[in-house]
Amino acid sequence: MKKALALLTGCAFGLAASAQSWPTKPVKLVVPAPAGSSLDFIARTLGDKLRERWKQPVVVDNKAGAGGMLGMTAVAKAPADGYILGVGFNGPIAFGPHMYKKMAYDPAKELLPIVLTSSQPNVLAVAASNPARTLPEFVAWAKKQGGKINYASVGAGSSSHLTMELFKSAAGFEATHVPFAGSPPAGISVASEETQALFTVAPALLPLIQGGRIRLLAATSLQRTETMKDLPTVAEAGYPGFEALAWNGLFSSAGTPPELVRRINADVNEVMKDKDVRDAFAKQGLILGGGSPDEFKTFIAAESLKWGAIIKKVGISID
Fold first, then answer.
1. Which burial class, exposed, middle or buried, applies to 285 when counting CB atoms under 10 A from its CB (0-12, 13-18, 19+)?
2. Domain end: 180, 201, 228, which one?
3. Quick one: pLDDT at residue 276?
4. What is the three-class DSSP state of 56?
5. In the beta sheet, which residues pair with residue 83?
6. d(CA 116, CA 12)
7. Is the peptide bond before 57 cis (omega within 30 degrees of 0)?
């Protein structure tokens, strides 16, 4: 018994020491989105500071495709040693299991949440020519159309798509979904009145906003954000508790030692306190994350439950 206890104690000390000496070689950050994307910006901004802290190169590896699942599959199947991490987001983590009949990985079993890195509200955009100037006015106008309006999204099963479905249910109006391949064409469709509304993140619509072609009516965070202080939230405009965030966080493959997960979590939390990081994120309209691995895990479980119900109600199923 004493020998067994001594062995376990020795193993614990060994793991702790290993976590403290990590990393001894370059760390790869897999980004399941293309270069220039918001996720890419997040990975490179954090990676630059982590490189200084870890004294090792932090290499960003863009693996876009399959709605983010291509990149997250690479993370899920990686060795559980912390040298391959991924910046996952709600699509392939909380939405995918409810939409796809078969996935190459099980997010709940094969991915280990480390830390929430940031979140961002969607905003409701309409054409500048739309008569609605406020969210209540838009809902009243939409109801008068008798279901004869269309709404754009940045893709079927995206946060953009599901947020509108959640809002339609809360507000009680009908509209037909028209998916596009990303924010630029979706935004242009609203500006040109091909579609009548869109939920997506504000930075993606900046050229259309600055050009006076679209108008923002509300944001989907519970409180107004620092970068959009003049934009009301859906919650304050008559739908208490309404929240729909585009979020992202750091993941490793399942089996990564708890001591190492805690080490990486602590380092990322420290990096996110850096003024340069905070300013860079704020300029992009990103709300800094943080917190413990357990808090991130609990958050993901709640998001999966919430959006799983919406996906089931809408009937989204992808082979």
1. buried
2. 228
3. 96
4. coil
5. none
6. 27
7. no
Average confidence (pLDDT) over 221-227: 91
User: Do 192 and 48 sit in the same domain of this protein?
Assistant: no
* Three-class secondary structure of residue 225 per DSSP: coil
How far apart (Å, rounded) are the C-alpha atoms in residues 98 and 113? 19
Give the CATH number, domain containing residue 259.
3.40.190.150
pLDDT tens figures, 134-181:
999 999 999 999 999 999 999 888 999 999 999 999 999 999 999 988
Burial class (CB in 10 A: 0-12, 13-18, 19+), 228: middle
Whether residue 258 sits in one domain with residue 213: no
Q: Is residue 267 a contact partner of residue 253, using CB atoms and an 8 Å limit?
A: no
Diameter of the chain by CA atoms? Answer: 78
DSSP state of 232: P
Please report which confidence band the pLDDT of residue 3 belongs to, taking 50, 70 and 90 as the band edges: low
Q: Which long-range contacts (CB under 8 A, 24 or more apart) does 222-225 make?
A: 225/121, 225/285, 225/287
The fraction of the chain above a pLDDT of 90, given in percent, is 82
Q: Could you give the number of structural domains in the chain? A: 2
**Is the pLDDT reported for residue 127 higher than 60?**
yes
Q: What range does the domain containing 135 cover? A: 121-228
Q: Within this chain, do residues 146 and 222 fall inside the same structural domain, yes or no?
A: yes
Mean of the pLDDT values across residues 273-289?
A: 94
- Give yes or no for a contact between 228 and 285, defined as CB atoms under 8 angstroms apart: yes
Q: Which residues are within 8 A (CB) of 39 and not within 5 positions of it... i.e. 6 or more apart?
A: 31, 32, 33, 87, 89, 248
- Which pair of tokens denotes residue 61? 């590896």
Rg (alpha carbons) of the chain, rounded to whole number: 21
Beta carbons of 62 and 29 less than 8 angstroms apart: no
pLDDT above 70 covers a percentage of the chain that reads 95
Q: Are 290 and 269 in contact (CB under 8 A)?
A: yes
What pTM was estimated for this model as a whole?
A: 0.86
| pLDDT, position 318 | 85
Q: Which residue has the tokens 């078969």?
A: 102
